[in-house]
C-alpha cells in the first residue's frame, strides 16, 4: 500500500522508532543517504507562512540528492478553481513526493486519496506531525528514551500541536497531559484515537484545565502560540484565558528537575513563554528546530523505501 504521513498515527509504534533511528543516523551523516538521487523532485507547497518547514524541507531534499520545487499554493491553479484531486493527479506525474501545508485536514486527505506518490502533512489546522517527529527525536536525545516519560502541553488544546503531540506521544509510549483553558478543548475523536493507541503502547492521555498540576513532575513541557495561523480573527479571546498557561520560571519549577522545554516556534516571547525560560538551560528549542531537517529527511527516505517495497 502506498504510504502517506497525514497524521502522527499513520506510523505504527515500530515504524515511528524506525524513522527516529534513521533521523539520528542522518544527523551524524547528513549526506549518507541519497534517496532522491537523480535528482528526483519533491513538491513543497505552502498555503500558510513558514520559515522552518520550508527551509528544512528544501535543505533536506537537496541533501538527499533531490530537487525541491517550492510553490506558494495561493499562486497555483488550486488557489482558483482547479480541484485538489485534479492537482494531485498532475503532481504525481512530476514528483516523487508531495509536501503540503494547508488548512483543513480534509484537504490533505483529498490530495492523498488520489496521489500516486507519498503525501506529507507539513501542517494543517488539525495536525503538525513532522514537527512532532523532530520533537520526539529531541526528547530522546536529551532523556535517552521516550516510553514512560510524561510530556505536558500547555495552551490551545484544539490546535495542531496539541493533537499531534497527543497522537505522536502515545505512539512512543509517553504519558501525554494536555492543559488547556475551558472552551479550547482537544478534538474528542483525536483524544479517543490517542487513547486507543495508548492501550497498545502503555502510554496515556490526561486532559485538564489546571496548568500547575499538569506541569507537576513532568519530564517535558511544551507550548505553542495561543493563536494559530488562520485563527487570528476567529472572534475568541486568545489572550486572557491563556495567561495562566504561560511557561515561566514558576511553572517550570513544578516540573521534574531535569525537565526540558520545547516550542515548535515561532515563539511569542512574553506570551506563551518567557524569555527566561526559552533562553534558559531547560530550553531545547534550537535543537528541536534543527531536528526538523533530520526527521523529515528520515521520513522521506522511509516513505520512498516503503514505496519501492510495494
Ligand atoms: N515550527 C514550524 O513549523 O515553523 P514554520 O511555521 O516556520 O515552518
Ligand atoms: N500552531 C501553530 C504552529 C506554527 C508552526 C500554527 O498553526 O500557527
From TrEMBL:
Highest taxon of source: Bacteria
Q: In which pathway does it act?
A: Amino-acid biosynthesis; L-arginine biosynthesis; L-arginine from L-ornithine and carbamoyl phosphate: step 1/3
Q: Which residues bind L-ornithine?
A: 160, 224, 228-229
Task: Give the main localization category.
Answer: cytoplasm
What is one GO cellular-component annotation here?
cytoplasm
Gene Ontology BP terms: citrulline biosynthetic process; L-arginine biosynthetic process via ornithine
Which reaction does this enzyme catalyse, per its entry? carbamoyl phosphate + L-ornithine = L-citrulline + phosphate + H(+)
Q: What is its EC number?
A: 2.1.3.3
Residues engaged in binding carbamoyl phosphate? 50-53, 77, 101, 128-131, 264-265, 292
| A Pfam short name | OTCace
Please give the Gene Ontology molecular function terms for this protein.
amino acid binding; ornithine carbamoyltransferase activity
Keyword terms? Cytoplasm, Transferase
* Segments forming domain Aspartate/ornithine carbamoyltransferase Asp/Orn-binding: 148-303
Q: What is the annotated localization of this protein?
A: Cytoplasm
The segment(s) forming the Aspartate/ornithine carbamoyltransferase carbamoyl-P binding domain are: 3-141
Which protein family is it in? Belongs to the aspartate/ornithine carbamoyltransferase superfamily. OTCase family.
Among NCBIfam families, the record links this protein to: orni_carb_tr, PRK00779.1
In Swiss-Prot or TrEMBL terms, this protein is called: Ornithine carbamoyltransferase
Amino acid at each position: 500500500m502506498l504510504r502517506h504521513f497525514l497524521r502522527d498515527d499513520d506510523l505504527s509504534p515500530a515504524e515511528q522508532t524506525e524513522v527516529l533511528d534513521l533521523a539520528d543516523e542522518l544527523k551524524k551523516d547528513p549526506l549518507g543517504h541519497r534517496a532522491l538521487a537523480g535528482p528526483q523532485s519533491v513538491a513543497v507547497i505552502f498555503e500558510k507562512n513558514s520559515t522552518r518547514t520550508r527551509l528544512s524541507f528544501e535543505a533536506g531534499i537537496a541533501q538527499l540528492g533531490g530537487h525541491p520545487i517550492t510553490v506558494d499554493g495561493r499562486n497555483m491553479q488550486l488557489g482558483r478553481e482547479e480541484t485538489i484531486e485534479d492537482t494531485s493527479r498532475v503532481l504525481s506525474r512530476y514528483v516523487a513526493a508531495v509536501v503540503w501545508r494547508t488548512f483543513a485536514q480534509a484537504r490533505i486527505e483529498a490530495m492523498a486519496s488520489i496521489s500516486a506518490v507519498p503525501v506529507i502533512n507539513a501542517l494543517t489546522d488539525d495536525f503538525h506531525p513532522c514537527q512532532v517527529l523532530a520533537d520526539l527525536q529531541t526528547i530522546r536525545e536529551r532523556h535517552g528514551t521516550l516510553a514512560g516519560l510524561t510530556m505536558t502541553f500547555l495552551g490551545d488544546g484544539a490546535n495542531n500541536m496539541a493533537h499531534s503531540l497527543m497522537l505522536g506521544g502515545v505512539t512512543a509510549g509517553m504519558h501525554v497531559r494536555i492543559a488547556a483553558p475551558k472552551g479550547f478543548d482537544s478534538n474528542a475523536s483525536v483524544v479517543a484515537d490517542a487513547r486507543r493507541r495508548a492501550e497498545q503502547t502503555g502510554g496515556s492521555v490526561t486532559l485538564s484545565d489546571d496548568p500547575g498540576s499538569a506541569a507537576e513532575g513532568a519530564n517535558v513541557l511544551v507550548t505553542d502560540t495561543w493563536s494559530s495561523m488562520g485563527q487570528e480573527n476567529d472572534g475568541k479571546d486568545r489572550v486572557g484565558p491563556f495567561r495562566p498557561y504561560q511557561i515561566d520560571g514558576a511553572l517550570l519549577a513544578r516540573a521534574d528537575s531535569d525537565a526540558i522545554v520545547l516550542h515548535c516556534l515561532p515563539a511569542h516571547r512574553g506570551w506563551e513563554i518567557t524569555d527566561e525560560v526559552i533562553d534558559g538551560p531547560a530550553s531545547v528549542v534550537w535543537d528541536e528546530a534543527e531536528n526538523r531537517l533530520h526527521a523529515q529527511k528520515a521520513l522521506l527516505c522511509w516513505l520512498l523505501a516503503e514505496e519501492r517495497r510495494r
